[in-house]
Write a structure and sequence with these properties.
- With 491 residues, this protein is an all-alpha fold.
- It is 64% helix and 0% strand.
- The protein contains 28 helices and no strands.
- Helix 21 packs parallel to helix 24.
- The two termini are 34 Å apart.
Length: 491
């Protein structure tokens, strides 16, 4: 069965035939921009009256007072713990502030006002809603398209915070954020959101400062983070072309966000998956699988794992790109989360066709999966057990024989001791498939006994789930009825 990977809110499996499925696996929604100078500011301790005074100053006809008070608001909203977002919103800061973001005559005031909006949008969902309802989105997109580099960076940051609130993501995309966002990576930034997105699709070399590139990469991750994205095909292709460039950027933070974005695209619809493969992103993913930095390896793993959750030809493309040697190396990583995610990715490969399964066998990964099961990390055991179980469903009798040679029946039997009904059911089904093959049965029975399988199966007869009870009883009665007095070997 091809399945989605573990996450706090895993989406539905992409396809679920009767006996197997492939599935996907799953950084923060918003970012608060901190000012280094608020600590020395006299307004570090404030009252509601102070905030209302600042808002009155922002409304002033004096350019000097407007700027001074916008800076005061920015400093207070840059406090890392408990910035007065709610209080400023209550004081009515949005109405006088947004026009300062819209105007371009005073770039210093525009930058400070945009910074204030950024931090107002970094709070709770209600705070973000207030910013959106105040009409900030089109104004921020205009600042992204028409401001200088500093203003564009700040506007992108503010929009990223709004997009991070999932319910506003499609609204911001439909308002035209993609073209100026991608153009912000280059000196020839688009002058308006009406510019055709095709101009960015070729994704020339990035010329913007790394701080701006980091923000753009993070905003792209927020755009693609959740399912249900509504975006024009041309815009999506432009984003993927840009991601191809970002994947080779020298800055680690940029690369990591780009990798996560690819992983989100890879868990989406098949059209997006194919566009990513056609953009020649696979070699970059494979390169990052071999990175020294674990923060790169994990999203590269998820991206490739999500792609092999798709159709067989997508899985073939991932295998042809050379992921299996990296998977083999990562299965012996000292980091159990890497072993878990590799095992999950392999479970989607072994849910494929027999040629794909044979590549796993030829790569020497079956003994490694067996060893991983014996390491007693439940989440790793679960994924590795799925990988072996899927092989018993989709593999040939000869391939099941290879599984037995690697000690697969013994390893699967050891997983019967876990308390997860779904995992136990998968293992019982796998053992039944192996035991049904006549020329494999004797060795399978021996491995089950060695792993204290009779004792474990008898214990499952008292399991709360009726299906588990029935399967355990059927296996015992069919294959272990004789000589049960001796129970398991070595017990």
């Amino acid at each position: 069965m091809k399945r989605e990977g573990s996450s706090q809110s895993a989406p539905e499996a992409s396809r679920q035939p009767a006996s197997f499925s492939r599935r996907p696996y799953e950084t923060g929604r918003s970012r608060h921009m901190v000012s280094e100078d608020y600590k020395s500011d006299e307004d570090a301790e404030y009252t509601q009256e102070t905030l209302e005074e600042i808002v009155r100053g922002i409304k002033s006809n004096s350019r000097k007072r407007r700027l001074e008070n916008t800076i005061r608001a920015r400093k207070l909203l840059s406090i890392e713990v408990g910035p007065p977002i709610k209080e400023f919103l209550k004081a009515g800061i949005l109405r006088p502030l947004i026009p300062y973001v819209q105007q371009q005559e005073d770039s210093t005031l525009q930058l400070e006002a945009t910074w204030v909006l950024t931090n107002l949008a970094s709070g709770t969902a209600a705070h973000t809603a207030a910013v959106v309802d105040g009409g900030a989105v089109p104004v921020l997109i205009g600042a992204l398209a028409g401001g200088d580099e500093e203003v564009a960076e700040q506007a992108a940051w503010a929009l990223g915070n709004i997009i991070g609130e999932e319910r506003y993501r499609n609204q911001v995309v439909s308002a035209g954020v993609v073209t100026p966002l991608l153009a912000a990576l280059h000196h020839g930034r688009a002058s308006s959101s009406s510019t055709s997105s095709s101009s960015a699709s070729s994704s020339p070399s990035i010329s913007s400062p790394v701080s701006l590139v980091r923000v753009v990469a993070w905003v792209l991750a927020n755009i693609f983070r959740h399912k249900g994205l509504v975006m024009e095909k041309q815009e999506r292709q432009a984003c993927i072309a840009t991601l191809k460039t970002l994947l080779s950027h020298p800055d680690c933070e940029v690369t990591v966000d780009a990798l996560w974005t690819v992983s989100y695209i890879a868990v989406g619809d098949e059209e997006g998956q194919r566009e990513a493969v056609e953009a020649d992103i696979l070699p970059d993913l494979v390169t990052h699988l071999g990175a020294k930095e674990r923060q790169k390896v994990i999203p590269a793993l998820r991206a490739t794992g999500n792609l092999v959750m798709g159709s067989n030809d997508l899985t073939d493309a991932v295998l042809a790109a050379g992921v299996l040697p990296h998977y083999s190396r990562l299965l012996v990583s000292p980091h159990h989360n890497l072993r878990r995610e590799v095992s999950w990715a392999l479970s989607n490969v072994t849910a494929g066709n027999r040629n794909q399964i044979q590549q796993v066998i030829d790569g020497g990964l079956l003994p490694q999966l067996v060893e991983v099961i014996g390491q007693n990390h439940l989440d790793v055991q679960r994924e590795a057990a799925w990988a072996l179980s899927n092989l018993t469903t989709c593999g040939s009798p000869e391939q099941l024989g290879e599984l037995l040679l690697a000690g697969g029946a013994s390893a699967l039997t050891s997983v019967l001791a876990v308390s997860e009904t779904g995992t136990v059911g998968v293992v019982l089904s796998a053992l039944q498939k192996i035991l049904k093959i006549p020329n494999l049965r004797n060795e399978a029975v021996r491995q089950v006994r060695v792993a204290q399988g009779v004792q474990r199966l008898e214990a499952l007869q008292g399991y709360v789930d009726s299906d588990i009870k029935e399967r355990a009883t059927e296996i015992l009665n069919t294959y272990f009825q004789e000589n049960t007095e001796g129970r398991d070997e070595g017990s």
